[in-house]
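2024-03-11 09:14:02 INFO receiving multi-entity request
2024-03-11 09:14:02 INFO entity count = two
2024-03-11 09:14:03 INFO echoing inputs for audit
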Amino acid sequence: MSPVGILAHPLGRLGLQSLPFWQMLQHPTEANVINGIIATGAAGLLVIGAIITAALITKYRKWGVLWSEWLTSTDHKKIGIMYVVLAFVMLARALIEACLMRAQQAFGLGGGFLSPEHFAELFSTHGTIMIFFMAMPFLTGVINYVMPLQIGARDVTFPRLNSISLGLTAAGAMLVMVSLVLGKFSTGGWFGYPPYTEANFNPGVGPDYWIWALSLSGLGSTFTGINFVATIWKERAPGMKLLRMPLFTWTALCTSILMMFAMPPLTIAMAQLALDRYLGFHYFTNALGGNQMHFVNLFWMFGHPEVYILVLPSFGIYSEVVATFSGKRLYGYQSMVMATMGIAILSFTVWLHHFFTMGQGANVNAVFGIASMLIGIPTGVKIYDWMWTMFRGRIRFTVPMVYSIGFIFLFVLGGISGILLADPGIDYQVHNSVFLVAHFHNVAVPGVLFGLIAGYHFWFPKAFGFRLNERWGLISAVCWIAGFMLAFFPLYGLGLMGLPRRTVSYNQPSYVPLEMVAFLGAILIIVALGALVMQLWVSIQHRHENRVFVGDPWDGRSLEWSVSAPPPHYNFVVLPVVTERDAFTAAKERGTGYQRPETYVDIELPKNAAIGPVLGAIGLVLAFGLVWHIWWMVIASTVGLLAALIASGFARDTTRIVPAQQVQQQQQRWLDAVAAAAAILRFDECKPANAGLAEQEQAGVAA
Amino acid sequence: MSREAIKHPGLNLGLAHGADHDAAERVMFGFWLFLMSDAILFGMVFATYVTSLHATAGGPGPHDLYDIRSVFIETLLLLASSATFGMASLALKYQHGKASLIGWLAVTLLLGVAFLGFESHDFITMFAKGGVPSRSGFLSAFFDLVPLHGLHVMGGCIWLICLVGQIARYGLDRQVKLGIMRLALFWHFLDIVWIAIFSVVYLAGLA
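2024-03-11 09:21:47 INFO inference complete, emitting structure
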């Protein structure tokens, strides 16, 4: 565009018509008014929420703290917490959207209340958010917090890069939030197939919002993957051999390797679609040699490994939770490791099963169908390992354990429906029906989300120094599990009855009863979310009686439990020396769990850095400019991006020293607390008596 | 060589550099990981290109557009720049002094810029013959693959200038050393990618 053009349209295509209530005011038909009110309400909630948050921060004068203690922090623990906070905010939005969709479908016989475009926007944002801005930040956050502690490291290998990854992911999430207020999001689903998302059919801003949000978060995840692999490879404490790593760290390693290799195809697919839309290229268009199958292949070469990126960390969490709350070492550790690696490798060989019906021919389909079924084997091994871990264990039904047991039952069902779908013949019958929707929610919700929530309950006391309320946690867990079953089991039936996915309305009265049940399930899930919020509130109110400063509330097995809760900034005063698996359990059994170091030394830590939030902010502005064709903004932010990168290259003096004396004081305070604490038995662990010191039991008898 | 003398694949700083040599281990490993990820990026655009060869949609194809002489000169320039960067790395490792290091880096930069100049000229010539990316799927794929490499080289040139700036500002401190070592890997990596482009795009295209 010429300089004159830039000046003539300083706001690009942004205008009054971009506001969510504009259409309703211009053409107040009944349908427009209903959809306008819903969209405006959502945008209003977001704006009011942002204003209230900003006002509260100003009122309590917390901007400085927010900047210097959190946003610019390079501490892996704080970055991890920020990721999880981001995930919960996005989870709330995407769940409300899900409930709205179920409501539309429940009353969708011959119409319903949402317009088809509005419904399409809802399933697109729901999927995009749940995968890229809920599950990804959640698992990245948990790995960030836990993995360096588990391997006995002080931080990740590249702390500043870690902060940059968070900045980019948050920028992508904010872009999706902005699309609620200005303009409309894509209507092309979470995988946005062209040519539908090409400029010919979708000239608006929707697909552009989607492209740039995914690009930002994809870039962040690539860097995260590189960072985590480097950390696990290079930062392990002395003696922490690969086959001594806790299983969660193993799954973190496999997930990170997948991130490194699976994100580039997404980056390329997004870049090519953007070139098609912005500069008239022909990668995926209908004309002049474009081929949409290129997009489909690229997207699923990312998309299938992505499924395992999401689920592997949860498998790791379940392994930790089941072993800890059964009071036994994990059964079949080596088979678990092999199964995890096997899944990671197989994940690159099955992408084609996402489009069996798109014309590859029977033989190709057969190969990919068999490869897909093979994944059931390592996953089955894992299920048996978890069951054998529980066998003859003294199981405590804490909240994470309830999620884990719910997961085992539900995931097996989801897996079986997956094996069905891996058969191309069956896939032809049920593809694109809500049977598929039921299947992937059946693996994603118990497999991914329940695991992450279990991890949240499991490690929350480590991160904040007090336990979460068990009662509300249990209520939430039961509502999640029951709500999930009510919401998704009916969809198997509806799919077999022929209901296509992504349909705004239908004309079959026989669908209505099952749709109603599914709607009830969605409401129950909203209740579950409410209970989680309530739990957090109650737990913060009662935090003083539930402190576990000593740091080991669950009689934990790996090194993260061997330090105070919350851990000091530098994690370990002396890097632990590891001699076997389940290092902390071994130390406790030897009576060497809490030792006074002989000498204290200065500890070097990375300083805070502004580059993470700065790159995130610039990335957001750049993406916004690109979405709305505000070219001066694009040029300015590109220049800013380069300048920031160059300036950060010139930064020196990026570490600071914690003096030995300060380390000693902190350590002394903690060791005093350890000495003063009363050790508790396992059946007291959910009572206020639990100060985080576990009574050691020998040969199954209380000592 | 002993285990201590080799901390990571590729040219090591060596024991003479003391703690800088040790610090290289993690940083270089991380950069190798990045290169692996970047290699997949190139793999994907190669795949797009190879599967779009026949999607010329009646527009110009390789024989109408490619100029093998120009591309051969580019190849020589880039290979020569890899050799001169190798000399820069040796000057760093064996501590031949700042002047020698900056000299070799400057030659490398000149060669890199010359490569970009020839490549831009190629693109302009192609445009003049109607070979614009919006003409066909084949040309879109070409202008994904080759300029992606060119952009990488451009990024490498900017990085090189910044490193020279850092040498001027801070001398040969640890971050400068590690920066040069990483840029060296990046530069040689781009050389390898170019050899693949030369073979797959130009030689195979004109064969």
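2024-03-11 09:21:48 INFO post-check: Chain A has one domain: 62-541+568-684.
2024-03-11 09:21:48 INFO post-check: The interface with chain B takes residues 157-158, 222, 225-227, 229-230, 233-235, 260-261, 263-265, 267-268, 271-272, 275-276, 279-283, 287-291, 294, 298, 301, 642, 646, 649-650, 652 of chain A (CB under 8 Å).
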